[in-house]
Request: fold
Amino acid sequence: MCLKDKIEKSKLPKHVAIIMDGNGRWAKIRGNKRIFGHKNGVKAVRDVVKGAGELGIKYLTLYAFSTENWNRPKIEVNALMSLFITAVKNETKNLIENNVKLSAIGELNTLPSNVQLNLNEIISETKNNSGLNLILAISYSSKQEITEMVRKIAEQVKSNTIKTENISPELISENMQTAGIPNPELLIRTGGEYRISNFLLWQISYSELYFTETLWPDFNKKLFFEAIYNYQQRERRFGKITEQLDNDAEEKS
Ligand code: FPP
Reply:
């Protein structure tokens, strides 16, 4: 039986988030420039998006560019921006054919106008698709997202739209950029680093974490399936004990 068939369709995570790391090292090992790694990273993105669609996963969030990434050498930042444009343009047909709906989170207004333009175009062209929701985190910082949420809620308190006692975890979630999107049950990080790097801090409070040494350009749908299979072997207790989970399951059946 192949790995994909071992995955239980009834226990799929609704939302998987990925920190795609290791492009630069992948290129360096091959004596190439960092952008060569990023270009090959696009191939891995394509394969994983395909795999997520095949499984029937509803949401896939990819960390494509962090706010901190603006501090990289200008030549790399510019090359990444051009890559986003070509990737978005080249993939449009593919995404439409595969019923993928694209959206983006992050400080999108800080992106060069041609990146914003191309991104908005594909977002609009795929808005009626009903398959996989592919969310690109670009110029994204979780602390920035949380700061914006606090500002929004403070404005609502100031204008008497809400009272401070009505501030709840639900209200906070509704005021994040990820409003309406379920929290990721699984967070994958490639590239052998064991950190979160300012990604979805509020949303991953109960996510299962999966770290792999594989550098992002070597990641593919088979390795993605492996991560999903690994996730399905875990027991998610949400602070409860095993016996309570057994009882919950019995009550449900
Ligand atoms: C991290 O590797 C990767 C990035 C900062 C860029 C990710 C971009 C892509 C995979 C390409 C395009 C994506 C889309 C969605 C069109 P790194 O450069 O930090 O690698 P290193 O840790 O080896 O230096």
Observations:
- The two ends are 28 Å apart (CA to CA).
- The domain at 10-141+185-232 is CATH 3.40.1180.10 (Undecaprenyl pyrophosphate synthetase).
- The chain has one domain: 10-141+185-232.
- The first strand starts at residue 15 and ends at 19.
